């Protein structure tokens, strides 16, 4: 017998500031649904989730929660007033017998339940709100960016928890790996319309491109029909005025239909200028170490960063990633050892705390008030990579409209603040880019563009991120802060780091589904000759092999450009080295799979 839906929205319409957010929206959430809610920044994802949670009342339509169904919403900015500690807030409303659930969640999400509310950071408050929701275990969970402020270990814990729950959930997240592992359906908000596909996020981008391609084809056909009818009107209407008024009215209707179509928002017109070339050696650290009080942040550590390198720094929150980068760039001094910076460096920094943004300034003031961007004598111009540009035109490059130019920074969403910070960062030339958690709050399309820009950037990149997919796409070296002050350098991105450590790479970090033909499924008993780690490694290797094959194909295609060697010799050399590395890694992975498969069968 079919089960009743948990939540049903029917003919929902909602308007903010005179602009419709949704009109005639209908959707259903079923028991056991695991749904990714995706869309551009500003498309209304968080607003829709608040409508689902009953926190925002639509102008029209009906929101029906089935009788007896419990629902929980993870707030972006939880109100902890009235609670002494984070634990008190997280355990509110729970029976004493369920207090252990808060303790388990606090351990997994890495916050101290005894922390006083008044001294807790914004990230700790969000983790407490997430712990509260998980401990309450409602039948429907509504999660708005739950991975923000979580490190990779905590994200892994949350993935495991959600993969085992029987509850339904809807997730908004910028973390592709997180969404790929957990979701089975996708809700896509696009220009006020919500579409649903019964596939998880791994199928979203292909689906989106197919929808947009069909849309473009239909628009092209409509344009051709309008042109043909307009030509007829000009050439023949005078001779047949009375007899063809119906056709004239049809032409007007076609034009009205074309005018009513909502154009897709373009991608941000972001660009990076690598500026003057730095020396070949950008940073050389020898034996650097750091302690704060009796806590060891970094034991003696060596690192050489050459021009064009992309170095990712990974590890738990508080492990010292940002401190290490500040030592490498000369912002703070190590307790011992030396850091030698290369010549001709121009550094640009993306700060995860958004400290460069003054919430009381307008967007206009945030750009024109920056000494590095100010144009002498012009209050409406900013200097963008050496050329003056009107401040509103530059804001439009980053998808801000005219009305937002005079709005305060505090009114922006998290994704909009990230775009504004990128606008400031990209206005000036640089050859060393330091990016501390740049992916938080950015939508998928902007992340794709940022990844492409970093790939084409001729300078050097130092990246701190908990986004495993983004690290895999960008980094060619990974520095892992592994606890107790230990830092280790690994070749490649996140997946390469995990493989080199001999750890099983969870499905969440793979960039493509496993190849069923690569390793036929066998009963677990057949693999009894393997240890626990070996068994998981064998299960993970097909996806690792497929990722390497895809990277090899991409690099081979890149190197096949006939004039690449003469026009971009540095890129040619780097791609050649990367291809050799991937080919070697593929050979090693294939041999490892064969060895483990033979051991499993013995």
Structure description:
This protein is of the alpha/beta class and 602 residues long. The protein has 3 domains: 7-206, Rossmann fold, CATH 3.40.50.300; 281-500, Rossmann fold (3-Layer(aba) Sandwich); 512-601, Valyl-tRNA synthetase, C-terminal domain (Helix Hairpins), CATH 1.10.287. The protein contains 18 helices and 21 strands. It has helices at residues 45-52, 86-91, 99-109, 122-136, 152-164, 176-182, 204-236, 245-260, 321-328, 363-368, 391-397, 414-426, 444-456, 468-474, 494-500, 532-559, 564-567, 569-601; strands at residues 7-16, 19-29, 34-39, 60-65, 71-74, 140-144, 168-172, 185-190, 193-197, 281-292, 295-306, 310-314, 336-341, 347-350, 374-375, 378-384, 387-390, 432-436, 460-464, 477-481, 487-491. The strands form 5 sheets. The chain has a 6-stranded mixed sheet with strand order 5-6-7-3-8-9, sandwiched between helices. Strands 14-18-19-12-20-21 form a 6-stranded mixed sheet, sandwiched between helices. The chain has a 3-stranded antiparallel sheet with strand order 2-1-4, with no helix packed on it. α16 runs antiparallel to α18 (569-601). The chain is globular, with a radius of gyration of 27 Å. GO terms for molecular function: ATP binding. Keywords: ATP-binding, Nucleotide-binding. Residues 7-216, 283-511 form the ABC transporter domain. InterPro entries: AAA+_ATPase, ABC_tran_C, ABC_transporter-like_ATP-bd, ABC_transporter-like_CS, ABCF_ATPase, P-loop_NTPase, Val-tRNA_synth_C_sf.
